[in-house]
Amino acid sequence: MKIHEYQAKSLLRKAGVAVPEGIVCKSADEVAAAYDKLGGEIAVVKSQIHAGGRGKGRFKEHPDQAGVVLVRSAAEAKENAARMLGSTLVTIQTGDEGKQVNTLFVEQGLKIARELYLGIVVDREVGGPVLIMSSEGGMEIEEVAHSSPEKILTEPFDLDAGLFPYQARKLAYQLGFDKTAVRSAEKFLPKLCKFFVDNDCSMTEINPLVLTEDGQLLALDAKVSFDDNAMFRHKDLLELRDLSEEDASEVRAGDAGLSYVNLDGDIGCLVNGAGLAMSTMDIIKLHGAEPANFLDVGGGANVDQVSEAFRIILSDDNVKAVLVNIFGGIMRCDVIVEALLEAYEKVGITVPLVVRLEGTNVDKAREMLDGCGRDIITATDLTDAARKVVASLSA
């Protein structure tokens, strides 16, 4: 689950992590009032969407308007805000469709000495969280990793003990901090790592992390996402979810207990098991087509879930055929076919449907499909299924 920058900074502030003063605004008049309230000579007006690259992004309706702007008066703040609110911001992470800006965050200007990069992720090889820092703040970390990998510093830390002071000092010295900045890092970095663990984050990124002229670290930006599987422990965080920023089909699938990710292809996939779903998408691509989605119905899907899965898949106008790939282990194949046929009647499938089954009672299930009188194409194995569903696109 992702949240907005202003929400992330509110949580960070409560955790004792230093962030600039800022005010959330929903109108141009509120932005002007926020500028006056912050009381500085300069302020920053920031678009709030679930995407990075906002500073370099541009609005479809106003190509010269950036997604993040520095302003020096209330009038200038209001003028920029009027163009930004309600307009569609396109960044490197949104794709060409962009995202509509409905909220702005006005933040105090700072006297910045340096910009740095900071990120925390879970590293599978390490088997725990890793703090990542770089002197190249404000840049995409992927670009830094490609062009200057030596500028990326990593420091694994313990889940229970957190980041030790000596680890914070080591990173600070490697980044060339003076004594004042090192002391700031000793406070800032362990608190941020504790925030990551305490809130079951999957990613926390501060880009840029700034070092002010008086030697203090502050989170100038904040991008935070949480592990969906841990949200039962954080009911308060669920209130921060912004459904307007999420794919409507993915939200609908989540409500039905389905794992679904929308993609750009034309072959819909209905599969049980995440690994099998990935393999299904791979083999579709191998045979020259593109999957329209990842969809895992799980090992115990019922008729209602299968029906909803079909509805979600077919709601995508790009879908020209559907491949059902089921391994009946926990659930018998004949039970799956019963649910499939009932869902077929409920939904009314009008595109080619290819079904591949394997597992318990598979022979009985295949007989049921052969004798059902529906326009369903059966396949003997995964390769056969991929060939048939790809061929159906040109039939």
From TrEMBL:
<protein>
    <recommendedName>
        <fullName>Succinate--CoA ligase [ADP-forming] subunit beta</fullName>
        <ecNumber>6.2.1.5</ecNumber>
    </recommendedName>
</protein>
<dbReference type="GO" id="GO:0004776">
    <property type="term" value="F:succinate-CoA ligase (GDP-forming) activity"/>
</dbReference>
<feature type="binding site">
    <location>
        <begin position="53"/>
        <end position="55"/>
    </location>
    <ligand>
        <name>ATP</name>
    </ligand>
</feature>
<dbReference type="GO" id="GO:0042709">
    <property type="term" value="C:succinate-CoA ligase complex"/>
</dbReference>
<feature type="binding site">
    <location>
        <position position="107"/>
    </location>
    <ligand>
        <name>ATP</name>
    </ligand>
</feature>
<comment type="function">
    <text>Succinyl-CoA synthetase functions in the citric acid cycle (TCA), coupling the hydrolysis of succinyl-CoA to the synthesis of either ATP or GTP and thus represents the only step of substrate-level phosphorylation in the TCA. The beta subunit provides nucleotide specificity of the enzyme and binds the substrate succinate, while the binding sites for coenzyme A and phosphate are found in the alpha subunit.</text>
</comment>
<dbReference type="InterPro" id="IPR011761">
    <property type="entry name" value="ATP-grasp"/>
</dbReference>
<keyword id="KW-0460">Magnesium</keyword>
<dbReference type="InterPro" id="IPR013815">
    <property type="entry name" value="ATP_grasp_subdomain_1"/>
</dbReference>
<feature type="binding site">
    <location>
        <position position="221"/>
    </location>
    <ligand>
        <name>Mg(2+)</name>
    </ligand>
</feature>
<feature type="domain" description="ATP-grasp">
    <location>
        <begin position="9"/>
        <end position="235"/>
    </location>
</feature>
<dbReference type="InterPro" id="IPR005809">
    <property type="entry name" value="Succ_CoA_ligase-like_bsu"/>
</dbReference>
<dbReference type="InterPro" id="IPR016102">
    <property type="entry name" value="Succinyl-CoA_synth-like"/>
</dbReference>
<feature type="binding site">
    <location>
        <position position="272"/>
    </location>
    <ligand>
        <name>substrate</name>
    </ligand>
</feature>
<dbReference type="GO" id="GO:0005829">
    <property type="term" value="C:cytosol"/>
</dbReference>
<keyword id="KW-0479">Metal-binding</keyword>
<dbReference type="Pfam" id="PF08442">
    <property type="entry name" value="ATP-grasp_2"/>
</dbReference>
<comment type="pathway">
    <text>Carbohydrate metabolism; tricarboxylic acid cycle; succinate from succinyl-CoA (ligase route): step 1/1.</text>
</comment>
<feature type="binding site">
    <location>
        <begin position="329"/>
        <end position="331"/>
    </location>
    <ligand>
        <name>substrate</name>
    </ligand>
</feature>
<keyword id="KW-0067">ATP-binding</keyword>
<comment type="subunit">
    <text>Heterotetramer of two alpha and two beta subunits.</text>
</comment>
<keyword id="KW-0816">Tricarboxylic acid cycle</keyword>
<feature type="binding site">
    <location>
        <position position="115"/>
    </location>
    <ligand>
        <name>ATP</name>
    </ligand>
</feature>
<comment type="similarity">
    <text>Belongs to the succinate/malate CoA ligase beta subunit family.</text>
</comment>
<dbReference type="GO" id="GO:0000287">
    <property type="term" value="F:magnesium ion binding"/>
</dbReference>
<keyword id="KW-0547">Nucleotide-binding</keyword>
<dbReference type="GO" id="GO:0004775">
    <property type="term" value="F:succinate-CoA ligase (ADP-forming) activity"/>
</dbReference>
<dbReference type="GO" id="GO:0005524">
    <property type="term" value="F:ATP binding"/>
</dbReference>
<dbReference type="InterPro" id="IPR013650">
    <property type="entry name" value="ATP-grasp_succ-CoA_synth-type"/>
</dbReference>
<feature type="binding site">
    <location>
        <position position="46"/>
    </location>
    <ligand>
        <name>ATP</name>
    </ligand>
</feature>
<dbReference type="InterPro" id="IPR017866">
    <property type="entry name" value="Succ-CoA_synthase_bsu_CS"/>
</dbReference>
<dbReference type="GO" id="GO:0006099">
    <property type="term" value="P:tricarboxylic acid cycle"/>
</dbReference>
<feature type="binding site">
    <location>
        <position position="207"/>
    </location>
    <ligand>
        <name>Mg(2+)</name>
    </ligand>
</feature>
<feature type="binding site">
    <location>
        <position position="110"/>
    </location>
    <ligand>
        <name>ATP</name>
    </ligand>
</feature>
<dbReference type="InterPro" id="IPR005811">
    <property type="entry name" value="SUCC_ACL_C"/>
</dbReference>
<dbReference type="GO" id="GO:0006104">
    <property type="term" value="P:succinyl-CoA metabolic process"/>
</dbReference>
<keyword id="KW-0436">Ligase</keyword>
<dbReference type="Pfam" id="PF00549">
    <property type="entry name" value="Ligase_CoA"/>
</dbReference>
